Amino acid sequence: MVLPIVHYNTPVLREKGAPVTAFDADLKQLGAAMIEAMHEARGIGLAAQQIGRALQLCVVDLRAAELDFTWQLDGAKPPLDLFMPMVLVNPQITVTPGTDDYIYEEGCLSFPEIRGDVIRPDAITVKFQDQHGVPHELTCDGLLSRCIQHEVDHLNGTLFIDRMEKRVRTKLDKAVKELALATKAAAGS
Ligand SMILES: [Zn+2]
User: Fold this and answer.
1) Does residue 2 fall inside a structural domain?
2) Burial of 21: CB neighbours in 10 Å, binned 0-12, 13-18, 19+
3) Is residue 129 scored above 80 in pLDDT?
């Protein structure tokens, strides 16, 4: 069964993820199940909170996206097919000094049909572990950087609506409230 993706305002979406300490078969299985759920939903990223687990774990796959971004993984530039889908465990982001902020319209699998402009820095470096516990360092920009920033926010209980400017957030207020009510009704049924 494909893991169901929880919608706003399910409480787990506001929980900070616990660090992953066991790089075992359960973790590999969870990573694979999250990748399956992300693909099923046609998303480019998914955080553990979105399948109901408050953990420092997310998955990313941008192979189907427009390749208008650059990346360097552990000092090399491997083809995306070699390292995606990616499982990022315990990721830590550092914004590249001097990089520009830019606006982009984001969506989120926990907010079906809701989209809005979010301002984020362009270039980042993310340090993370893979499913075997091996540390890696990825420097990237564009959509890959944005996707990772969005997912790592989830791991800390932060949602894209929190990052929106007030005028953007206000326009979505009705839809966000309706979603929260629908989620609550579904949980109670
Ligand atoms: Zn999201």
Assistant:
1) no
2) exposed
3) yes
> Does the N-terminal peptide bond of residue 19 adopt cis geometry, omega within 30 degrees of 0?
no
Q: Is 151 a catalytic residue?
A: yes
Q: Out of 106, 151, 165, 178, which one is annotated catalytic?
A: 151
Question: Total structural domains in the chain?
Answer: 1
**Centre of ligand 1 from the C-alpha of residue 54, in Å:** 14
Q: If 0-12 CB within 10 Å is exposed, 13-18 middle and 19+ buried, where does residue 99 land?
A: middle
In whole numbers, what is the pLDDT of the chain averaged over residues? Answer: 97
What residue numbers bound the domain in which 63 lies?
Answer: 11-188
Q: Which amino acid is at 176?
A: V
Whole-number Å distance, alpha carbon 162 to ligand 1 midpoint, is: 11
- How far does residue 131's CA lie from ligand 1's centre (Å)? 21
What's the pLDDT score for residue 113?
95
Q: Spell out the alpha helix ranges (H) of the chain.
A: 25-40, 80-83, 142-155, 160-163, 166-171, 173-188
